[in-house]
Write a structure and sequence with these properties.
Helix 7 (146-185) packs antiparallel against helix 8 (192-221). The chain contains nine helices and no strands. The radius of gyration is 20 Å and the shape is globular. It is mostly helical. Helix content is 79%, strand content 0%.
Length: 228
């Protein structure tokens, strides 16, 4: 097992990192698609069951972004933010279940998400504002300070990749270690309060990633509206 903990999927595909994490990523994607399918399979005017839960979730995502970019833009980018949040949430919850592992506890996955967000919000910045205005915004309000401000802004933007990826990875990896120690030290019933703590913390980490993504996108697309 190469020093890895037992997982059901690991027994099927092996405990080498790539197939092991890949199998859990595929399972995470399947669960997310099943949830989405269940939500739209029998649409009703008065939502019930999974449709009711997902509609409430989507309304919460829009409300989350309304303060930073307005309701119109929040709805525009809601599909991306909601998808990220659902994937991260399902992955985080999977790590709580003994015999499974969270892909968000792997730096390669969280780094991939962070890089995707980084390139996407910068793409929107160039598209909405033009290269000259978007890069000029990074040079500060005083031209004389541009040689100083521009490198600082570039470093600040690149550091967001590290911030997004390592915050999520470190938190979930720490949760996995906490759960492992908890299950080794006490019987199965006693750790229930710990499971509740991990559940709440998994929700919090998904919320933070979604909120920061909204903020980064807002900063890149709202420059044109700031002038008005």
């Amino acid at each position: 097992m190469e020093g890895r903990l037992f997982t059901f999927l690991g027994e099927l595909v092996g405990h080498a990192q790539v197939p092991h994490i890949g199998a859990h990523l595929i399972l995470t994607a399947i669960i997310v698609m099943l949830i989405a399918r269940a939500a739209v399979s029998k649409l009703q005017i008065v939502p019930t069951g999974t449709q009711n839960v997902i509609e409430a979730y989507l309304q919460g995502v829009v409300a989350m972004g309304k303060d930073s970019m307005g309701e119109k833009n929040a709805k525009k980018f809601m599909p991306l933010i909601a998808t990220l949040g659902l994937i991260i949430f399902v992955a985080n919850m999977m790590g709580i279940i003994p015999g499974f592992e969270s892909v968000t506890g792997n730096i390669n996955f969280t780094l991939s998400l962070a890089i995707m967000v980084f390139f996407y919000y910068n793409y929107l910045g160039f598209k909405e504002n033009g290269a000259g205005k978007y890069l000029g915004h990074m040079m500060g309000p005083v031209p004389a300070l541009a040689p100083l401000m521009f490198p600082i802004e570039v470093i600040s933007h690149v550091s967001r990749i590290i911030s997004l990826s390592f915050r999520l990875f470190g938190s979930i990896k720490g949760d996995d270690m906490f759960l492992m120690v908890l299950l080794m030290l006490v019987p199965w019933i006693a750790p229930l309060p710990g499971f509740f703590f991990l559940f709440a913390f998994g929700i919090l980490q998904a919320f933070i990633f979604m909120m920061l993504t909204y903020v980064y996108i807002s900063g890149s697309v709202m420059m044109a509206e700031e002038e008005h």
